């Protein structure tokens, strides 16, 4: 298996691009609130700090990439979380490619390599540039276009995300992973299909870290946090339409086939409430090709804010979902997502679901454990 695989670009006969709801609208049917989320590392995880740790053991100095830290706590920055979720949402909904440069320049072994790659001429994947025709991902996460034109169009997204903070953690053993490289134009054929960009790149999960075995002095010394480390973060959303909230929830939780035990250990279980044999999980942070960054996200509580009730009645308009009510609430929106994208999940094997090709490809890449 290669280090990465592609969710291929697929043309859809019906455009999902449309005018988004107004940020200040309090119409009935628009949804606001916050989701409290817990991210659990399923493999060692590393968000690199700019500060390098020095290991002086046995008189040998070696530099290690350490985990990002704020005020003494290990943190996944909000921008990292949002970037991961947006990339997943774009693939999951066949939305536009929000960041794409057709020209790529890279220096390798003191040689300059260049490549020119074009997107397929599919309307649904063309980078959004019209506020009145935004794809699902841009309506939720925002849009910035026209940097090289006089238009300079922007649309502020309808969600914001906090940093993910770990209250406790244990370092994994320092190790040296395989060398990680930037994409090389010389390999442009890998990234192309019929002279167009092949698709969106994702990294599959692996059971073990890819350890460096040669003696070359490549940068790859890391000190990740252990599997089972948990981070809590909050997603705030405002004025989402029902199907947009369904997309957001599905993007966050994907398809879980695991059980998290009281000691934070993780087991894949046939007795999981979803009855899944396997699941679909995110990858985040540094070293994804080497096996780092596999993670599962749960929504642990939800605060639903009804802006119309808040401003037209004497109540607060706030409804908190927890425990069984929360799980039923999540399942309600997952069913809305399934209906919107014509998905029929099969809970004994998430890779065999009935779904659009782009959803099946994404699930196959991010499915774990592999059969």
Features:
single chain, 371 residues, 30% strand
How would you characterize the overall build of this protein?
With 371 residues, this protein is of the alpha+beta class. It is 18% helix and 30% strand. It has one domain. Strands 2, 11, 18, 22, 23 and 24 form a 6-stranded antiparallel beta sheet that branches. Helix 1 crosses helix 3 and helix 3 (242-253) crosses helix 5 (323-340). The chain is globular, with a radius of gyration of 22 Å. The chain starts with a strand and ends with a strand.
Quick recap:
This protein is α+β, with helices and mostly antiparallel strands and 371 residues long.
Write the layout of secondary structure elements.
Layout: E1 5-8, E2 31-41, E3 48-55, E4 62-67, E5 69-70, E6 73-76, H1 78-93, E7 103-108, E8 111-116, H2 136-141, E9 142-145, E10 153-156, E11 159-161, E12 164-165, E13 175-176, E14 192-193, E15 196-197, E16 199-202, E17 221-222, E18 230-240, H3 242-253, E19 258-260, E20 266-268, E21 279-280, E22 282-283, E23 294-305, H4 307-312, E24 318-321, H5 323-340, H6 357-366, E25 367-368
Antiparallel strand pairs: 1-16, 2-18, 2-23, 3-4, 5-6, 6-12, 7-8, 9-10, 11-18, 13-17, 14-15, 19-20, 21-25, 22-23, 23-24
């Amino acid at each position: 298996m290669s280090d990465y695989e592609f969710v291929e670009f697929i043309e859809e006969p019906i455009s999902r691009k449309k005018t988004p709801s107004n940020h200040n609208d309090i119409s009935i049917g628009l949804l606001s609130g916050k989701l409290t989320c817990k991210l659990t590392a399923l493999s060692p995880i590393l968000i690199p700090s700019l500060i390098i740790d020095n290991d002086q053991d046995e008189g040998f100095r070696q530099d290690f990439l350490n985990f990002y830290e704020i005020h003494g706590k290990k943190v996944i920055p909000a921008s990292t979380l949002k970037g991961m979720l947006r990339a997943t949402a774009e693939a999951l909904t066949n939305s536009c490619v929000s960041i794409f440069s057709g020209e790529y320049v890279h220096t390798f072994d003191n040689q300059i390599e260049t490549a020119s790659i074009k997107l397929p001429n599919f309307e649904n994947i063309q980078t959004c540039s019209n506020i009145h025709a935004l794809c699902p991902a841009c309506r939720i996460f925002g849009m910035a276009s026209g940097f090289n034109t006089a238009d300079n169009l922007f649309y502020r997204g309808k969600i914001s995300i906090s940093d993910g903070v770990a209250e406790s953690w244990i370092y994994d053993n320092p190790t040296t992973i395989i060398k990680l490289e930037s994409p090389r134009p010389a390999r442009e054929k890998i990234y192309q299909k019929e002279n167009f960009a092949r698709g969106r790149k994702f990294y599959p999960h692996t059971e073990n870290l890819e350890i460096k075995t040669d003696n070359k002095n490549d940068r790859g010394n890391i000190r990740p946090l252990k599997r089972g480390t948990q981070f809590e973060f909050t997603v705030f959303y405002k004025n989402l339409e029902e199907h947009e909230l369904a997309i957001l929830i599905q993007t966050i939780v994907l398809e879980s086939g695991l059980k998290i035990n009281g000691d934070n250990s993780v087991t894949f279980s046939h007795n999981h409430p979803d009855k899944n044999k396997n699941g679909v999980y995110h990858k985040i942070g540094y070293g994804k090709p080497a096996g780092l960054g596999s993670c599962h996200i749960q929504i642990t509580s939800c605060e639903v804010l009804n802006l119309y009730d808040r401003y037209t009645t004497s109540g607060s308009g706030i409804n908190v979902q927890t425990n069984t009510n929360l799980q039923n609430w999540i399942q309600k929106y997952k069913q809305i997502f399934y209906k919107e994208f014509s998905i029929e999940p099969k809970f004994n094997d998430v890779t065999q679901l009935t779904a659009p090709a782009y959803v099946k490809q994404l699930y196959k890449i991010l499915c774990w454990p592999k059969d």
